[in-house]
Amino acid sequence: PRVRHTADQETEFLVVANRLPVHLEAHGTAEPRWQRSPGGLVSALEPILRARRGAWVGWAGTTGDTPVAFHDPDLRLHPVPLNESEYRDYYEGFSNATLWPLFHDAVAPPEFKQAWWQSYRQVNQRFAEHTAAVAAPGATVWIQDYQLMLVPALLRERRPDVRIGFFLHIPFPPPELFLQLPWRTEVVDGLLGADLVGFQLPGGARNFLQLVRRLHRGESVAGGQPTPVLGTVRLPGRTVRAGAFPISIDTAGLEALAHSEAVRERAQRIRHRLGGSRKIMLGVDRLDYTKGIDQRLRAFEGLLAKNRITAQDTVLVQIATPSRERVEHYRRQRARVEAQVGRINGTFGQVGRVPVHYLHTTVDRTELAALYQAADVMLVTPLRDGMNLVAKEFVAARPDLGGALVLSEFAGAAHELPQALLVNPHHLSELEDTMAAALDLEERERRHRMRELRRHVRERDVHHWARSFLSALSEGGHGAVPG
Ligand code: ADQ
């Protein structure tokens, strides 16, 4: 379906992302209709988009061509079309089977294919063209994430007058890893088209500055700038800045939901259904091999095998969103997780009482908040994660100060949430011990930790993130205009 351009005026503020914040929703036998997709990024950017007469450039999420109009007076949308082979090569291939594993410590081996790269370049070109066509003179453009790393330079070629920000949602790897990429110079040059390149963590910004030096792409200087900007790259005629801007969630929105009657009742029901006095451990992730779901299941199995917990006193609920299901590594990951769940329940379950409840599905916001609230222990154990919003959402959903958070050191969120029970998910016995400790955490300590965690996610919400990035972007010089 084609999404109609809802305005033909040029816009002063543009968000460019792989996906538009809409999806098709079935309506019985009638034609499916466009719906707004919920999400922190949309809720953070929406007020800014509205105030600045902004627009969003992105793919509508379908490669078919049945025309279905989309209308939203508050949000102007500029769809970029993708065909089936581009979806395969640019999105599933280069973005998710090359860049995604490479940028996540190569926990799965990245695949390098020329045809995928060509498609990536071509699609990035198209995004740049669409953006160039609708940006007003001197507009601000904010490009999001690893699918679009060439867009900053491609856009600058066409429109040297616009101010360009880029934010990477996933980790930026150390040079030793990044240098494996056959098209490393092109990708770095793509990013250097921006005026400001933002990362989740200071380490990502430093890796980037180091890489620029290693590849001789400009004179990079660390420091000497007010934070969150951590360094600059001097190029002929202009300067690129790099900094850390840890993303967050719509804390107030989630807190309000957590206080609602619907969520509180549902949380109680979940507790009751799972067996009243049983302790509930919870995992909520996209079914991705970076999320450490297998490690978590193995540790849970270890605790059962050693009799440190039993199916009578503890239950693990794992919600896994279907994700990138045609990509080989994801298929194998699903098979692995489902085999583990089957083995654990087969070994330690009884009729009417299984230790693992596994749901391969997405859940709505109310259900998600209720699950967070029902949990005694939240397990966030990725092997590598740019930030991890689930950890922050759990904290925001616990105004009762209940629940303990087990958090991997390899999630970006660990840098901001040191009061969580931090763990190395590669160390199986440490993971077992930490999970057991979380179950036994003394009430006073648990409440104290939760209070501190909550203080942080309230102060540093997604609005703070967007403001700090955009004000850093507007402070610096840009393009050929002397700053
Ligand atoms: P993701 O890898 O997708 O994001 P995460 O940050 O945890 O990871 O965000 C997932 C979102 O999806 C959360 O808002 C969560 O509530 C939701 N979600 C997960 N499973 C769900 C389910 N079964 N049902 C409903 N909702 C579900 C990437 C990076 C992260 C970074 C974010 C934002 O990999 O490191 O934090 O972008 O920058």
UniProtKB/TrEMBL annotation:
Task: Tell me which Gene3D superfamilies the record gives.
Answer: Glycogen Phosphorylase B
Write down the InterPro entries for this protein, in alphabetical order. Glyco_trans_20
The protein's superkingdom reads Bacteria
Task: Return any one Pfam family short name.
Answer: Glyco_transf_20
Indicate the transmembrane segments per the record: none
Family named by the database record: Belongs to the glycosyltransferase 20 family.
Q: What is this protein called?
A: Trehalose-6-phosphate synthase
